[in-house]
Amino acid sequence: MVEAGGIAADRLKQFIERVERLEDERKALGADIREVYSEAKAVGFEPKIMRQIVKLRQMDGDDLKEQESLLEVYKHALGME
Predict the structure, then answer these.
(1) Which contacts of 38-42 are long-range, i.e. CB under 8 A and separated by 24 or more positions?
(2) What is the pTM of this model?
């Protein structure tokens, strides 16, 4: 293994290349997700609302309840209900 300035260059290169591959995969996944939202919009669904639903479904049940409760409190304070 080649060392440069105390750094194992081959090992560092492996890490960098792994990160680069993962970044490429993330870009591809992002494009796939945008395509799904585009397809949904084409048949009448609202992507903005779908994104909110996806975010809510990923939340822990207690966190979701707390967020919904705070939203209601804030809306009430602003006279929105």
Answers:
(1) none
(2) 0.70
